[in-house]
Q: What sequence folds into this?
């Protein structure tokens, strides 16, 4: 159950777009359309931003979008805003034995 | 309004036991799978365990298998995590999280509790 690999940090200026990658294997990201993304501000519980690779929960800004290609999923944040500064985690279903595995996490900084 | 409220965290010695609870409201608890996710101080999220809506199916991370037991009481809308043989590396904030769907979907977690801190130290 190795963690999915994410870049440790990504930064961008307000209004810019950034993309966070999440690399797994053919046993998790590559096999299922069950990748979710979470935003976590310091001291707070995680918040669901994307589920099933591309779907946005009600209330989440359409500036957030998800995609997947092969063993790598991605989260794109468009029109970066100061409030987007947070840690972001991907998560993938990995089968009935392993169940879920999270990514290593990415700190997003708004310059 | 959906609310998940964890309790039971605290300081415990290595080798000791602790039982976490998560009292849930605002949704039909018995219709959804539930999970425990933990976060060590300054570290990332780690999925720990999941249980199906009915409670029949349970799942564990290798790091806790054989030591932790997840259970639920659908009549009390409460999720539990019994933690035995605790180690220093189990020190973390433990979150309960509601699955998007019933059964054991693994699709993601749409609601989270505020977390309860477990510290394993002598």
A:
């Amino acid at each position: 159950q190795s963690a999915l690999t994410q870049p440790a940090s990504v930064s961008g200026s307000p209004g810019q777009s950034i993309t966070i990658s999440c690399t797994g294997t053919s046993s998790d990201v590559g096999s299922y359309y069950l990748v979710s993304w979470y935003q976590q501000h310091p001291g707070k519980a995680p918040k669901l931003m994307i589920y099933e690779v591309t779907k946005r929960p009600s209330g989440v800004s359409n500036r957030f979008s998800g995609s997947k290609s092969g063993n790598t999923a991605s989260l794109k944040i468009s029109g970066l805003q100061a409030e987007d500064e947070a840690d972001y985690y991907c998560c993938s279903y990995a089968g009935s034995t392993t169940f879920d595995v999270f990514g290593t996490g990415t700190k997003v900084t708004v310059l | 309004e959906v609310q998940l409220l964890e309790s039971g965290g605290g300081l415990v010695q290595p080798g000791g036991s602790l039982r976490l609870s998560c009292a849930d409201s605002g949704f039909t608890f018995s219709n959804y799978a539930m999970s425990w996710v933990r976060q060590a101080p300054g570290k990332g999220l780690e999925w720990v365990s999941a249980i199906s809506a009915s409670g029949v199916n349970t799942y564990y991370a290798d790091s806790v298998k054989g030591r932790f037991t997840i259970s639920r009481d659908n009549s009390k809308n409460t999720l539990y995590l019994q933690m035995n043989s605790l180690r220093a590396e189990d020190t973390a904030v433990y979150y309960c999280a509601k699955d998007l769907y019933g059964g054991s979907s693994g699709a993601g977690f749409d609601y989270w509790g505020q977390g309860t801190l477990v510290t394993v130290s002598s």
About this structure: The radius of gyration of chain A is 13 Å. The longest strand of chain A covers residues 86-93. The helical segments of chain A are 95-98. The interface with chain B takes residues 1, 3, 32, 34, 36, 38, 40, 45-48, 51-52, 57, 87, 89, 91, 93-94, 96-97, 99-105 of chain A (CB under 8 Å).
